[in-house]
């Protein structure tokens, strides 16, 4: 099914509103929507609500033969699924342009920033290693899928625990979950993305809704961690013109937000752990 | 020889006249209904008549819930819409008051007659033209 | 599933496939009974086709299922807001959020003739009535009544704003008992078009006011009458403070 086209009046109102510093949903230009992180009953299941955008990530693992080029490392695989219920124009089994963009940016932010210590996932050099797989399901699309997807993926990876492994000579023993406590992944830092919609005259709008994304001229995606280190940067859109100063000011906004978001993620993880302990 | 055949048929020329508009619509509708009945007469079974008559299907919520008309205007934002809103919400006029009823049915209302027939506008326009020629401006135009 | 009787189980939740039997009085009476959305006649049974709450109304006796929907299915007689996407010959293609685009003839406007057609651009919004809405056919829209008169349908100005709400919220807003729009109208001058397909177009004097109204309307989705009145009072106070 086709996506409902954008009408002239929607685009005009969004642009006019942004010029006056007013957003359609009442937020200020550098304000995010309400973010909510919840965890499932299984290890490595995380659901993120960003306004009405809803994304779920599930981490799973299996033992595989490591790649010959990286014989002493485990593997990380990221997969994005777009549910047809999320938006009318999503097709089952096909990612489309938007899906590929989300997949690639999550990969760049999480995999390429080396936030997971892959060496600790190696069991036996050249023979056995853990492959960690992150399945990201887009459940409802109300704009800014990238931020929600990276947050969900990171939350799921932080929450995930793999079965413990011991070596007896060259024999590998994988312990059942009731036999030995599972071990969490080694996470070196927490990278997140923060997206801005770019409007004419260099106005940047944080956490755009679907309507804002479609009305905007372009998009700026920043991947940052809590140490204010930049992991990813992408500017997309046709003929987008943006000042150097604007990028730097966006980066500053994003960095302070990233610190808050990571804190929030850690708090949700701690709350979940406490709940599990008491239960 | 059904009763339809005997029915008085009005002449086409008469029906074309403006005051016959309502009658024309009525006769057209009657004719259409008749035509429909004759075309589908052999396809309607007795079961359809006995079963179908009890239930009517309605797929629209607006009819079920008596919803209001969705186009609205408030505080003079769009006078045309407000006129339509008033027409929709106003209860039908009481029938006893035949004088007022006649007024409502008339093509041109008394108010409109008084507006268009009165000389006040013409005179004022004339006056405005004259004053323009003389290089004066009315204070209301002065903005 | 045990069969439920109509009159005693009004306002109860039904699931698709449940069957409903008529109450004794309705069974005997010869008055016509209207089956609204979510109910259909299947042989001698009346089956439920949508999950929701059974509602009823007297004169004419009407029964329907009230349910939560986000995606629109065209129904004959509904007034909807659509985006013009294309012009094909004498008619426009209009997206009304249904699975198929609707067509709107360029002479289905008040006062329009073959020579005098309305000026419509691609991307414009139209408020129109569904004349044909059948599962097998392309929906067809009109902007006039059967007499060719202007009844408030037509092209909407591009200076307004369009937003989408769930379909049950539209029904709540247009319910004659709902006072939200009227009370907002007492505070501010604005015009609005509410489409049964979940789209609301609104235009006030400034963009700021338009956005404020749109937000007030969309957050009232789960509010009851009391809360709506409170929202209106708060809204009026805030507008006065501008």
TrEMBL record, chain A:
Q: Which GO terms describe its molecular function?
A: mRNA 3'-UTR AU-rich region binding
Annotated Pfam families: RNase_PH, RNase_PH_C
**Species whose genome carries this gene:** Daphnia pulex (Water flea)
In terms of one coarse class, where is the protein primarily found?
cytoplasm
Sorted UniProt keywords? Cytoplasm, Exosome, Nucleus, RNA-binding, rRNA processing
InterPro entries recorded: ExoRNase_PH_dom1, ExoRNase_PH_dom2, ExoRNase_PH_dom2_sf, Exosome_comp_Rrp42_subfam, PNPase/RNase_PH_dom_sf, Ribosomal_Su5_D2-typ_SF, Rrp45
Specify the protein name.
Exosome complex component RRP45
Q: Which domain of life is it from?
A: Eukaryota
Phosphoprotein as UniProt keyword: no
Coiled coil (UniProt feature): none
Q: Alphabetically, which GO biological process terms does the record hold?
A: exonucleolytic trimming to generate mature 3'-end of 5.8S rRNA from tricistronic rRNA transcript (SSU-rRNA, 5.8S rRNA, LSU-rRNA); nuclear mRNA surveillance; nuclear polyadenylation-dependent rRNA catabolic process; rRNA catabolic process; TRAMP-dependent tRNA surveillance pathway; U1 snRNA 3'-end processing; U4 snRNA 3'-end processing; U5 snRNA 3'-end processing
What are the Exoribonuclease phosphorolytic domain coordinates in residue numbering? 32-163, 191-256
Lineage per the UniProt record: Eukaryota, Metazoa, Ecdysozoa, Arthropoda, Crustacea
- Localization per record: Cytoplasm; Nucleus, Nucleolus
Listed under GO cellular component are: cytoplasmic exosome (RNase complex); nuclear exosome (RNase complex); nucleolus
Family membership, please give it.
Belongs to the RNase PH family.
From TrEMBL, chain B:
**Alphabetical keyword list:** Coiled coil
Report the superkingdom from the record.
Eukaryota
Coiled-coil residues:
17-44
Which Pfam families does the UniProt entry name for this protein?
MPP6
Does this entry carry the keyword tRNA processing? no
> What is the designated name of this protein?
M-phase phosphoprotein 6
Give a GO biological-process term.
maturation of 5.8S rRNA
Q: Does the keyword Magnesium apply?
A: no
Positions of region (Disordered): 88-120
TrEMBL record, chain C:
Instruction: Enumerate the spans annotated as Exosome complex exonuclease Rrp40 N-terminal domain.
Output: 33-71
* A Pfam family matched in the record: RRP40_S1
- Name the Gene Ontology molecular function terms of this record: RNA binding
Q: Which GO terms describe its biological process?
A: CUT catabolic process; exonucleolytic trimming to generate mature 3'-end of 5.8S rRNA from tricistronic rRNA transcript (SSU-rRNA, 5.8S rRNA, LSU-rRNA); nuclear polyadenylation-dependent rRNA catabolic process; nuclear-transcribed mRNA catabolic process; poly(A)-dependent snoRNA 3'-end processing; TRAMP-dependent tRNA surveillance pathway; U4 snRNA 3'-end processing
Q: Where in the cell is it found?
A: Cytoplasm; Nucleus, Nucleolus
Main localisation, per the record? Answer: cytoplasm
Q: Does the keyword Transmembrane helix apply?
A: no
Q: State the UniProt keywords alphabetically.
A: Cytoplasm, Exosome, Nucleus, RNA-binding, rRNA processing
The question of whether Cytoplasm is a record keyword is answered with yes
InterPro entries with a match to the protein in the record: Exosome_RNA_bind1/RRP40/RRP4, KH_dom_type_1, KH_dom_type_1_sf, NA-bd_OB-fold, RRP40_KH-I, Rrp40_N_euk, Rrp40_S1
Q: What are its GO cellular component terms?
A: cytoplasmic exosome (RNase complex); nuclear exosome (RNase complex); nucleolus
Q: Which residues form the K Homology domain?
A: 160-208
Report the family membership: Belongs to the RRP40 family.
Q: What's the protein called, per UniProt?
A: Exosome complex component RRP40
Q: From which source organism is this entry?
A: Daphnia pulex (Water flea)
């Amino acid at each position: 099914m086709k996506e409902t086209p954008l009408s002239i009046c929607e685009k005009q109102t969004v642009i006019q509103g942004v010029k006056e510093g007013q957003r359609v949903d009442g937020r200020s230009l550098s304000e995010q929507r309400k973010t909510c992180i919840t965890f499932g009953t299984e290890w490595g299941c995380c659901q993120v609500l960003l306004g009405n955008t809803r994304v779920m990530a599930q981490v799973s693992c299996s033992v595989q033969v490591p790649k010959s080029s990286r014989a002493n490392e485990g593997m990380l695989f990221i997969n994005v699924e777009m549910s047809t219920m999320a938006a009318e124009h999503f097709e089952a089994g096909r990612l489309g342009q938007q899906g590929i963009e989300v997949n690639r940016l999550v990969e760049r932010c999480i995999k390429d920033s080396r936030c997971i210590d892959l060496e600790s996932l190696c069991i036996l050099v050249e023979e056995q290693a853990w492959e960690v797989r992150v399945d990201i399901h887009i459940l409802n699309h109300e704009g800014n899928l990238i931020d929600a997807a990276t947050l969900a993926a990171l939350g799921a990876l932080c929450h995930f625990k793999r079965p413990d492994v011991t070596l007896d000579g060259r024999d590998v023993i994988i312990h059942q979950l009731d036999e030995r406590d599972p071990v969490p992944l080694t996470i070196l830092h927490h990278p997140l993305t923060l997206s801005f919609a770019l409007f004419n005259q260099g106005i940047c709008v944080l956490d755009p809704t679907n309507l804002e994304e479609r009305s905007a001229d372009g998009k700026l995606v920043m991947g940052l961690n809590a140490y204010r280190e930049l992991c990813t940067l992408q500017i997309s859109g046709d003929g987008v013109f943006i000042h150097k100063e604007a990028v730097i000011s966006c980066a500053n906004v994003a960095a302070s937000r990233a610190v808050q978001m990571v804190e929030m993620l850690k708090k949700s993880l701690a709350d979940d752990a406490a709940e599990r302990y008491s239960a | 020889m059904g009763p339809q055949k005997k029915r008085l048929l009005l002449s086409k020329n008469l029906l074309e006249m403006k005051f016959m508009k309502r009658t024309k619509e009525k006769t057209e509708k009657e004719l259409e209904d008749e035509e429909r009945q004759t075309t589908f007469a052999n396809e309607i079974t007795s079961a359809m008549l006995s079963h179908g008559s009890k239930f009517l299907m309605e797929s629209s919520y607006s009819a079920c819930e008596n919803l209001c008309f969705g186009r609205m205007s408030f505080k003079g934002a769009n006078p045309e819409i407000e006129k339509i809103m008033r027409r929709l919400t106003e209860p039908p006029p009481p029938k006893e008051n035949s004088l007022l009823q006649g007024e409502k049915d008339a093509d041109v209302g008394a108010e409109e007659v008084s507006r268009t027939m009165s000389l006040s506008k013409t005179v004022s326009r004339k006056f405005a033209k004259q004053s323009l020629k003389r290089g004066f401006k009315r204070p209301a135009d002065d903005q | 599933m045990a069969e439920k009787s109509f009159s005693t189980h009004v306002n109860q939740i039904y699931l698709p496939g449940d069957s409903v039997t008529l109450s004794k009085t309705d069974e005997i009476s010869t008055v016509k009974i209207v089956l609204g959305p979510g109910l259909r006649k299947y042989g001698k049974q009346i089956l439920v086709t949508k999950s929701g709450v059974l509602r009823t109304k007297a004169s004419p006796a009407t029964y329907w299922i009230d349910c939560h929907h986000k995606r629109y299915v065209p129904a004959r007689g509904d007034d909807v807001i659509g985006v013009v996407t294309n012009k094909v010959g004498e008619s426009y293609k209009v997206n009304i959020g249904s699975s198929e685009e609707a067509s709107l003839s360029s002479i289905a406007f008040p006062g329009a003739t073959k020579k005098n057609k309305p000026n419509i651009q691609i991307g414009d919004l139209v408020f129109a009535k569904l004349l044909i809405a059948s599962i097998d056919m392309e929906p067809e829209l009109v902007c006039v009544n059967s007499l060719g008169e202007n009844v408030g349908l037509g092209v909407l100005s591009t200076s307004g704003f369009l937003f989408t709400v769930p379909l049950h919220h539209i029904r709540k807003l247009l319910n004659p008992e709902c006072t939200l729009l009227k009370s907002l109208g007492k505070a501010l001058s604005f015009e609005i078009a509410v489409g049964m397909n979940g789209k609301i177009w609104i235009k006030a004097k400034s963009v700021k006011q338009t956005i404020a109204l749109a937000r007030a309307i969309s957050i009232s989705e789960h509010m009851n009458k009391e809360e709506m009145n409170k929202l209106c009072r708060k809204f009026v106070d805030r507008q006065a403070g501008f």
